[in-house]
Each structure stands twice: as C-alpha cells, then as structure tokens.
Specification:
Helices cover 43% and strands 10% of the residues. By secondary structure, the protein is of the alpha/beta class. The strands form two sheets. It has a five-stranded parallel sheet, sandwiched between helices. Bound molecules: thiamine diphosphate and magnesium ion.
Length: 326
C-alpha cells in the first residue's frame, strides 16, 4: 500500500519531468539547444516502474525517452540541462554524447548506445551476473515497441527466458516508431503477445496510469527476486510529441488523433486520482508548479553559463583510467 507521501512524490516526479521536457522544446525552438527527444505522455510508465523497484540497489537500462525514469533515479534537471547544451560538466559524457543517452553510476545505470535494443542484451548479461552471484537484485530495461523488431531484442529476451534471469523488459508502446504505426511493425497485436513464443510471462498494462504500472512492476519484481524468472510488460500509451525535435509528425498522423490522446494524459489521470483521494489540493498543486518552474529555471540558467568542453578533454574518460564522477 503506497503512502500519501509516496503517491505525492510519484506525481511530483512526473510533473517535474513534464515541465523540464516542455522547456527543452522551447529551448530548441529558440535555437539554444540542438536536439531534443521527448518523453511527454510516457511519464507514468517510467515513474511507476522505478517506484516499484529498489533505487540504488536494482539495475536500470533505460532508453532515450526515459527522462522521468532518470529523474526518479536521482538524475537532476541540472544534469539534463548540462547534457542538452553539451557542457563539460555533463555527467553522462562530458558533453560529447547526444542528450538522453543516460548513465548514472549511483543508481546502477550503465551508459547506453544509440543503437536501439543493445540495452536488452546488456540487461540479460547483468541478470546472469546477479543470478550467478546469488543476489536478489532485479534489472529493469526499457525499450520502444518498434525496437522489439530488432534481432538483438529477441536474443536478449530469449537468453533471459532460458536462464530464468531476474529481468523486467518494459516495452513502452507509444504506437509509433518514428512514422511507422504499430500494425506495420509487427504481425501480432502488440509486444506482450511475443512473450508466449519466447517463454516468459507477458502482460499488458495501461501505461497512462502510474498506479497500475506500479502494481504490475512490483508484482513481477517480487517474482524475479524469488528466482521465478523474467517478465515482459507492455505499457500501452501514446507519444504525444513528434518523434524528436527533427521530426514533423503532421506528415503521418492527424491533429485530431493527437488531441484525442491528450485526454489520456498520464499527469491529468494521476492528478484526478490524487484529488479524489484528497492527497492533492489546488493549493498543493500550485506550490508544486511553482517549485518545478524554479528548479527548471535554475537548471537552464546554470547550464547556460557553464563552460563547454575543451579540445584537450577529447579523450578524457575514453580510455581506461580514473572515473571521477558519481
Ligand atoms: C538499430 C537502429 N536502427 C535504427 C535506429 C534509428 N531509430 C532511432 S529511434 C527509432 C524508432 C524507434 O521506435 P520505438 O522503438 O517504437 O521507440 P519510440 O521512439 O517510439 O519511443 C529508430 C528507427 C537506431 N537508433 N538503431
Ligand atoms: Mg514507439
């Protein structure tokens, strides 16, 4: 049973992520950052999953839309702003990698590749290490539904299923892989249906409801800790924004379709639940909005004045040596 404080904390993390993400779009349109890939509409799946796991103990292999997931793990808006602007203090790559290629040592988030689905085999490998060491840790790895067409995804999931590894494969089905609708990406109704052919527990969940996601991830995590193997969870949701700041989604979907999906905005759904339960009041909401704005303003202002990397730092942390960041 989640406490009122925890529920409010879950809502706050989604809200902060949304306001940071929205600011990134503004910064991009103002020419202050070069690129943004958004998680708007996917916050409930990401935050619900993290809160169901043990932070600082379990392992996380996110994908590029997991802004809210990373904030839930302790990555800060300032970290994100530094990365968006390619500044040298960026903790993921010292300003050399594209933004949203996360890593966070303190939260067991290894760095990731831009090649989709590579995190799946990393997750299976970490799962195997956990099993061999006899630990009760769990690995959560996220991916978009389109990327479950990659060969590497099948290999990683198959391996985890054969060896009953403690891995949760969370597929965020936002219905598009850039311009390709889900029906053109797979012959089955959705990624969860692939589970029976691979031999693991597969389930669908409403990915716009943070509390439903929390429940299902908590349940399969306990199974994984007991040695009962991996699970494939398909969170059904919708990508409200274009694929990235370089995409014009008007070329492949109607405005009416996008507007209709905004009625299932995960933030509004959580807000309605929490207002009904008396956890969130209009006054509290106003306070949280003001706090989010303050934090995002501060993060952007800090990152803008921070220095760019210098040429001599080109190979720092590329070859073996001390890794100083937390
Ligand atoms: C192996 C590989 N192929 C293609 C790409 C280019 N690419 C990046 S994101 C993307 C779409 C992925 O769609 P999906 O998995 O549904 O995730 P979403 O972006 O919808 O969250 C593609 C094709 C890539 N990064 N890696
Ligand atoms: Mg997709």
């Amino acid at each position: 049973m989640l406490s009122k404080e925890t529920k409010l904390d879950m809502y706050w993390t989604m809200l902060l992520s949304r306001r940071l993400d929205e600011r990134a779009w503004v910064l991009h349109r103002q020419g202050r950052i070069a690129f943004h890939i958004s998680g708007i509409g996917q916050e409930a799946a990401q935050v619900g999953a993290v809160f169901a796991l043990r932070r600082g103990y379990d392992w996380f292999l996110p994908y590029y839309r997991d802004i809210a997931l990373m904030l839930a793990l302790g990555y800060t808006p300032r970290d994100f702003a530094l990365s968006m602007m390619g500044k040298s203090e960026d903790i993921t790559s010292a300003g050399r990698q594209m933004p949203s290629h996360w890593s966070l040592r303190s939260a067991n988030v290894p760095s990731q590749s831009a090649t989709v689905a590579t995190q799946t085999s990393h997750a299976a490998g970490i799962g195997l290490a956990i099993k061999l060491r006899g630990e009760d840790k769990v690995v959560l790895t996220c991916i978009g539904e389109g990327s479950t067409s990659q060969g590497e995804w099948y290999e990683g999931v198959n391996w985890a299923a054969i060896h009953r590894l403690p891995v949760i494969f969370l597929v965020q089905n936002n219905q598009y892989a850039i311009s390709e609708r889900v029906e053109r990406q797979m012959a089955v109704p959705g990624p969860a249906a692939k589970a029976c052919g691979l031999g693991l527990d597969g389930r669908e969940v409403d990915g716009t409801d943070i509390f439903q996601v929390y429940e299902v991830i908590a349940e399969v995590a306990e199974k994984a800790r007991r040695g009962e193997g991996p699970s494939l969870i398909e969170a059904k949701l919708y990508r409200i924004t274009p694929h990235s700041s370089d995409d014009d989604d008007r070329t492949y979907r109607s405005r009416e379709e996008v507007e209709a999906h905004k009625k299932r905005d995960p933030l509004l759904i959580a807000q309605a639940i929490l207002e009904k339960e008396g956890v969130l009041t209009p006054k509290k909401l106003e306070e949280l909005e003001a706090k989010a704005k303050r934090i995002v303003d501060e993060a952007v202002a800090y990152a803008e004045q921070a220095p760019y990397p210098v040429v001599d730092d080109n190979v720092t942390r590329v070859f073996a040596g001390e890794v100083s960041h937390a």
